[in-house]
Design goal:
It is built from 6 helices and 28 strands. The chain has 406 residues and is mainly β. A hairpin with a 5-residue loop joins strand 14 and strand 15. The radius of gyration is 20 Å and the shape is globular.
Length: 406
């Protein structure tokens, strides 16, 4: 049986690593081969309701500790105008809880954490080692949603949900570089594997019931040039687009859709769904009404392994995660969780063969091996983990984390 919990332990750094860091500290970032070699692979986990980001060592499955990314929470609330406060409360009511962390990314040099802070409708940057906030950018509207970091670390793209646009932020200054129009309630931002295309997915107005689906607005995937952010193509859907993954040849997208207990295979050249895979309902989920699904999503969590041979799909209302093989789209195996665990996101580890699954209501992350479709670890994190992002951290950043805080 896999371990049910790997407790937080202090990360011990070897003398050689510390010496390398000290020697390289005075050099510019691009001239630090010793420090670059010392970067450690981690999974950053955004604890949405807790307002923290936890970092898990992807080799040992240890929770290395966390960072508080809302140290200015009361200041932000006090500074809101009447209109902003009304919007803030409306977003929280529609969500059903206050999401302080929506998405995050770590700079390629392992030093800086960028955060999309959901209900606070902003994006911020922190120096991880010192916990100092470097900048804050107020996004348009009342909710900052999914985000993506460019491969070179220079641009942080955040969906401004109620403004129906995605904002491109300069990570050096926190200033808005540009923005582009999206569908209604933009959600995910995903770079194509080759980095040439940015895909923005919209979910429509989730507060409206399914019977009013036609009034939810444009549910689309907007493809833009990743350099100029000019629109290349728009793909329209009947239902909102939830988590999605894209193949390296830029030909195929696998996506979960609002209300669908499963996922679709989509031909990006032809602009059409080629296959729909319906996954099994759990006994509990079969009794649920579509309007009771969390934010319209039956299944919410889609990842793909390194060689693109397998998918890791979260059955959110069903409390399971399944490993599905390509190209046949057959299920290899399923890991079932306790009722109401709410598996709400999946992310592939840097090693390419582990899938990290957020169990939002259990405040844990489950690790599932793509090769065996079995759980290999369970890790305690902060309150309501959802978004996960693979990253690298410097020894200095790791040493600054408090393992006692998830």
């Amino acid at each position: 049986m896999p371990s049910r919990s790997l407790r937080r332990r202090t990360a011990l750094l070897g003398c050689a690593v510390l010496a390398a860091t000290a020697l390289s500290g005075a050099l510019p970032a691009q001239a630090q081969p010793a420090e670059t070699a010392a970067l450690r692979d981690v999974m950053a986990v955004g604890n949405g309701q807790g307002g923290t980001v936890s970092f898990i060592d992807t080799a040992t499955y240890q929770n290395l500790g966390s960072i508080n990314v809302v140290p200015d929470l009361q200041e932000r609330l006090n500074s809101m105008t009447v209109v902003e406060r009304i919007g803030y409360e409306a977003v929280n009511a529609a969500q059903g809880y206050r999401k302080l962390v929506d998405d995050m990314a770590v700079s390629p040099d392992g030093r800086t954490l960028y955060i999309s802070r959901g209900a606070l409708s902003d994006a911020v940057a922190f120096d991880i080692a010192t916990k100092r906030m470097l900048w804050r950018h107020k996004t348009e509207g009342f909710k900052a949603d999914h985000a993506a970091l460019s491969a070179d670390g220079r641009q942080f793209i955040v969906s401004a949900t109620t403004a129906s646009k995605a904002e491109v932020i300069d990570t050096a200054t926190g200033q808005l570089q540009t923005s582009f129009a999206t569908g209604t309630y933009p959600h995910a931002n995903d770079y194509s594997p080759d980095g040439t295309i940015l895909y923005n997915s919209s979910i429509g107005i989730t507060s409206l019931p399914k019977i009013l689906n036609a009034l939810k607005g444009a549910r689309s995937v907007t493809a833009v040039d990743a350099r100029t952010f000019k629109r290349l193509r728009t793909y329209n859907f009947e239902y909102g687009i939830r988590p999605a993954v894209f193949t390296r040849d830029n030909k195929t997208m696998y996506a979960q859709l609002s209300y669908l207990n499963g996922f679709v295979e989509y031909d990006l050249a032809a602009g059409k769904i080629t296959r729909t895979v319906k996954m099994p309902f759990s006994e509990k989920a079969a009794e649920m009404k579509p309007d009771d699904y969390p934010q319209n999503s039956a299944h919410h969590g889609m990842a793909m392994n390194a060689d693109e041979s397998k998918l890791c799909v979260a059955g959110t209302i069903d409390d399971y995660v399944s490993i599905v093989s390509r190209p046949g789209l057959t299920t290899d195996g399923t890991v079932t969780y306790a009722a109401d665990a709410l598996p709400y996101w999946t992310q592939t580890s840097p090693n390419g063969h582990d899938c990290f699954v957020s169990l939002a209501e259990d405040d844990q992350v489950s690790v599932v091996d793509y090769r065996t479709a079995r759980e290999v670890a369970r890790i305690d994190v902060g309150r309501f983990p959802q978004r996960e992002r693979a990253a690298k951290l410097t020894p200095e950043a790791i040493a600054s984390l408090d393992p006692a805080k998830g």
